[in-house]
Design brief:
- It is a single chain.
- By secondary structure, the protein is α+β, with helices and mostly antiparallel strands.
- It has helices spanning 58-64, 101-114, 117-133, and strands spanning 4-14, 20-30, 36-41, 52-57, 74-79, 83-90, 93-100.
- The chain has a seven-stranded antiparallel β-sheet with strand order 4-3-2-1-7-6-5, covered by helices on one side.
Length: 137
């Protein structure tokens, strides 16, 4: 049975005016997709009124806790001693969200308790093997 972690976290959405709006998000990690983490935002903060989930590399989250990281749609960097910023780029705009660094670090450590970095390679090997077996189908 695949393990899925889910953790609620308080965050602050930074508005275009520079104000912070408190929000509650859900952090998820599934052992079936060991390289990725998910952050789900509530419907009340999205432009279309629907819940929004971003999926990105677990390694990006880890790297961004101590130094600026990311080159694509998701960027992560430390902000002062206690916060970490996640920046999400979408075709219709940009969102800056601040988290307590400790909450993100606890979540990350829980994910590594489920699947360590050595387990990530096993998952990649399985994916490669299946692709080879199925001929890229």
């Amino acid at each position: 049975m695949a393990v899925t972690l889910e953790q609620s976290a308080r965050a602050r959405l930074v508005t275009p005016e520079g104000r912070e709006r408190p929000i509650s998000v859900t952090l998820r990690y599934a052992a079936s997709d060991p390289l990725a983490v998910q952050v789900t935002f509530p419907s009340e903060v999205s432009l279309d009124g629907a819940e929004v989930t971003w999926v990105f590399a677990r390694r990006l989250l880890e790297d961004g806790l101590s130094a600026p990281a990311g080159t694509g749609d998701v960027h992560v960097w430390p902000c002062g001693r206690a916060r970490t910023v996640l920046e999400f780029h979408a075709p219709h705009g940009l969102a800056l969200v601040q988290f307590d660094r400790g909450a993100l670090r606890r979540f990350l450590m829980r994910t590594y308790a489920v699947v360590g970095t050595d387990g990530e390679e096993v998952g990649l090997d399985l994916d490669r093997g299946l692709t080879k077996l199925l001929g890229g189908v």
